[in-house]
């Protein structure tokens, strides 16, 4: 398995700037993100505080970002990271049934993730998971609940339903669902996850579901959930001026490290994070 020098998680201005500078510094890297780069940028009606891009819409700036990536030969891997584990001298990044390895990580996840359910963090790894296709074999013949925040969650639910004795699907969005016939759709709002040493119940606003496991499938999870042991302060990743986190070899940049939530600030921090990661790698040769 290839072990990259740098893994960059997030394709907003911070992540893209980090990737460009990793390329300039001739480091092997992988950039994870969305083909749309960032939804926040697409929705911006007009941007005037990004030096050199005055009077442009977010969509126009996105187009310029894409041209820059193409010019630099920077490729995007459109996959969602479900968990990142520090393994000592490298990091393991989990994407469903696949795993990537990198000597350093730059977190540029933004602030678009939803707040965890009550009990979600408490039971993480004790019946609560974020990758249904990874952990499905653990629930063969058992009752499973999938809380899906997007259409992609339906594919994972269908896979789990082939192994589970019973599967409940709780959609957090509206529309038509392409689910296997043996899946029971529960259109209700989840409130709290309960259990003893392990999950045994999902409380919704109108009912309760007895379940052996719960998969919460979101567009993205909070950094504290994504990276076990990561220090969070006032809802943001705690970093120093060089964008170092409390985890050796892990850096962060952009909205996820604090206000102001501005594109130009995020890009600057992405640059600093990349240079800090390069310095860390060169120092460990």
Automatic annotation (TrEMBL):
On whether Oxidoreductase is a keyword of this UniProt record, the answer is yes
Among the GO molecular function terms of this UniProt record, one is: oxidoreductase activity
Identify the residues that the record assigns to the FAD/NAD(P)-binding domain, covering every copy: 4-270
Q: What keyword terms does UniProt attach to this protein? A: Flavoprotein, Oxidoreductase
Record keyword Oxidoreductase present: yes
| Protein name (record) | Thioredoxin reductase (NADPH)
Q: What does UniProt list as this organism's lineage?
A: Bacteria, Bacillati, Bacillota, Clostridia, Eubacteriales
């Amino acid at each position: 398995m290839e072990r990259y020098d740098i893994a960059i998680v997030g394709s907003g201005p911070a992540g893209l700037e980090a990737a460009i500078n990793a390329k300039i510094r001739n480091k092997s890297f992988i950039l994870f993100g969305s083909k749309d780069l960032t939804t926040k940028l697409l929705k911006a009606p007009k941007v005037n505080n990004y030096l050199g891009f005055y009077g442009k819409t977010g969509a126009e700036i996105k187009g310029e970002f894409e041209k820059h990536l193409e010019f630099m030969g920077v490729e995007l891997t459109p996959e969602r990271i479900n968990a990142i584990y520090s393994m000592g001298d490298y990091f393991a990044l989990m994407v469903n049934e696949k795993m990537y390895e990198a000597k350093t990580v730059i977190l540029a996840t933004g602030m678009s993730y939803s707040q965890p359910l009550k009990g979600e963090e408490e039971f993480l790894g004790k019946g609560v998971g974020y990758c249904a296709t990874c952990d499905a074999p653990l629930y063969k013949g058992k009752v499973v609940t999938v809380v899906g925040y997007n259409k992609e969650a339906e594919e994972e639910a269908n896979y789990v339903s082939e192994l589970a004795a019973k599967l409940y699907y709780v959609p957090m969005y509206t529309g038509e669902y392409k689910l296997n016939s043996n899946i029971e759709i529960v259109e209700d709002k989840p409130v709290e996850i309960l259990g003893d040493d392990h999950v045994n119940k999902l409380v919704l606003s109108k009912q309760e579901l007895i379940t052996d496991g719960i998969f919460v499938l979101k567009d993205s999870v909070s950094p504290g959930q994504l990276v076990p042991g990561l220090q969070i302060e006032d809802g943001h990743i705690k970093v120093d001026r060089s964008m170092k986190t409390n985890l050796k070899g892990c850096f962060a940049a952009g909205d996820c490290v604090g206000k102001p939530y501005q594109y130009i600030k995020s890009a600057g921090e992405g640059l600093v994070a990349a240079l800090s990661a390069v310095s860390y790698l060169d120092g460990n040769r």
